[in-house]
From TrEMBL:
Assigned protein family: Belongs to the dihydroorotate dehydrogenase family. Type 2 subfamily.
SUPFAM superfamilies per record: FMN-linked oxidoreductases (SSF51395)
Cofactor details (free text): Binds 1 FMN per subunit.
Record-annotated Dihydroorotate dehydrogenase catalytic domain positions: 50-347
Binding site for substrate: K71, N116, R117, M118, G119, F120, N176, N181, N257, T258
Entry protein name: Dihydroorotate dehydrogenase (quinone)
GO BP, sorted A to Z: 'de novo' pyrimidine nucleobase biosynthetic process; 'de novo' UMP biosynthetic process
Broad enzyme group: oxidoreductase
CDD domains: DHOD_2_like
Membrane topology, record value: Peripheral membrane protein
Subcellular location: Cell membrane; Membrane
Length: 350
């Protein structure tokens, strides 16, 4: 019903406006008594075989919602009803910012893709924290970045601010230095600045864990920190990533963010600047996952994201070395039934 009836209506309007309209609709219908339970019964699959324990966290199933969809943590409880095993909010920055000028979100219908140049538009980390206090047992990842006006040589402080603010309210962190829509951000993927950034966050992580253990009388427990990388990195750069993960002792990698490549696209909107997501990214993101898994000898968990539009796409990423997968553009094009279909396919292969 989604692809034949709902999607054609939604796709008839401006992508960013319809995103906000859809959020309002989902929030409204979930306030109707019994609707949340009905949605959960329609899309959730409760099966122990789907559970995954990755970097010390227990995921009800391995299919998550990627960052960028619920930037400000406004709808994570309602979105979890569609069967996701975890929700990643953000990217959040210390201060609220408008992001890049509109129009900044484009559908590429012929390519089943999206181009965005949103620019980390969000209401700031402290607003999100207030909403996260209302979490109804949803496993949450916190994706953090820097404000546009913050120069790269001061970027570490922005990540520290977000880390401190979110620490008690998310289950894991994602360091986003790979979005193509904040000027100069991808320069932080270079080995020296990236190592410094991750080392600082790990030091803070250790301190927070020790403080928490002192209060609760437990052993130090750190929050998993993951690095989200671009699909446009060379093999040499990916080898650097493996070394950086080892040296910094972070928990893992999310592969991949959007791409700046436009190879093979059919849509007229391919000329728009920004990050490309969707089907054109399927092959490259899987290649990056496989390369990292093989070259590191599976030394760390990988969350696979990029171009998952079918259950087979998800299985391919899991077989390439991903421990978990995330949806974004595929969720928009294929609808919420995709989450259940992937989990059913995983059970078939179990």
């Amino acid at each position: 019903m989604y692809k034949s009836l709902i999607r054609p209506i939604l796709f008839g309007f401006d992508p960013e406006k319809i995103h906000h309209f859809s959020f309002s609709c989902i929030r409204f219908i979930n306030k109707i008594p019994g609707v949340s339970s009905a949605i959960r019964s329609m899309y959730h699959i409760d099966d122990k075989r789907l559970e995954r324990e990755i970097f010390g966290l227990k995921f009800k199933n391995p299919v998550g919602l990627a960052a960028g969809f619920d930037k400000d943590a406004k709808l994570y409880n309602e979105l979890s009803n569609f069967g996701f095993g975890f929700i990643e909010i953000g990217t959040l920055t210390p201060k609220a910012q408008e992001g890049n000028p509109k129009k900044r979100l484009f559908r590429l219908l012929e390519d089943s893709a999206i181009v965005n140049r949103m620019g980390f538009n969000n209401g700031g980390v402290l607003e999100a924290v207030e909403r996260l206090k209302k979490n109804n047992d949803v496993l949450i990842g916190g994706n953090i970045g820097k404000n546009k006006v913050t120069p790269n040589d001061e970027a570490v402080k922005d990540y520290e601010i977000c880390f401190e603010a979110l620490y008690d309210h998310v289950d894991y962190f994602v360091v986003n230095v790979s979005s193509p829509n904040t000027p100069g951000l991808r320069e932080l993927q270079d080995k020296e600045p990236l190592t410094k950034l991750l080392m600082v966050l790990q030091e803070l992580n250790i301190k927070k864990g020790v403080t928490l253990s002192d209060v609760e009388g437990q052993k130090p427990k750190q929050k998993p920190i993951l690095l989200k990388i671009a699909p446009d990195l060379t093999n040499e750069q990916l080898l650097d990533i493996i070394e950086i993960v080892k040296d910094s002792k972070i928990a893992g990698v999310i592969a991949t963010n959007t791409t700046i490549s436009r190879d093979g696209l059919q849509s007229i909107n391919k000329i728009e600047a920004g990050g490309l997501s969707g089907k054109p990214l399927t092959k490259r993101s899987t290649e990056v996952i496989r390369f990292l898994a093989e070259k590191s000898n599976k030394a760390f968990p990988i969350i696979g994201v990029g171009g998952i539009h079918t259950p087979e796409d998800a299985i391919e990423k899991l077989e390439a070395g991903a421990s978990l997968v995330q949806l974004y553009t595929g969720f928009i094009y294929e609808g919420p039934a995709l989450v259940k279909a992937i989990n059913k396919k995983i059970l078939e292969n179990a």
